[in-house]
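in:
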């Protein structure tokens, strides 16, 4: 692919057989035009974040993609996959069948009303940083932070590799 961008996607689910939701979403990601799934992490189990802890645990993973799509086009494709799985974006922090987040889009920083990259919360979430480190341990994030540094300063929320 010409003008290929390497990007990373966070996957999460805590409803309707979360492990299968993630596995199916990874297969569906391979069907996004102009996009190739190059790596995916192990699956991890994570507790819901406080104060929203009264919901089932999540299954999380991170995938590396190569794409020639714009960040907005890729995010729209990811949202389409969420809808296929029954995702309804009514309330923030709600339990979800599937959540697909665009974590990183090359070395780009994007701050627009409909898209923010790097994902603004990823720097403090063990369920993003550990799977990302598993598949891309040497990357440096926009702003210069290394994954190793972020992991050393990340709160332990009881993440477990499945």
């Amino acid at each position: 692919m010409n003008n290929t961008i390497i990007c990373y996607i966070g996957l999460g689910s805590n409803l309707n057989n979360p492990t299968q939701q993630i596995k199916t979403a990874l297969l569906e990601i391979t069907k996004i035009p102009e996009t190739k799934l190059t790596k995916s992490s192990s699956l991890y189990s994570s507790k819901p974040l406080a104060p929203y802890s009264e919901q089932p645990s999540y299954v999380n993973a991170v995938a590396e993609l190569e794409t020639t799509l714009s960040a907005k086009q890729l995010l729209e494709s990811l949202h389409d996959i969420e809808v296929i799985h029954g995702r309804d974006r009514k309330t923030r922090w709600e339990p979800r069948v599937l959540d697909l987040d665009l974590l990183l889009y090359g070395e780009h920083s994007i701050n627009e009303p409909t898209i923010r990259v790097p994902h603004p919360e990823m720097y403090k979430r063990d369920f993003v940083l550990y799977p990302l480190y598993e598949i891309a341990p040497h990357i440096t994030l926009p702003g210069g932070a290394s994954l190793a540094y972020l992991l050393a300063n990340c709160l332990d929320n009881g993440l477990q590799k499945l």
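note: The longest helix spans residues 71-84.
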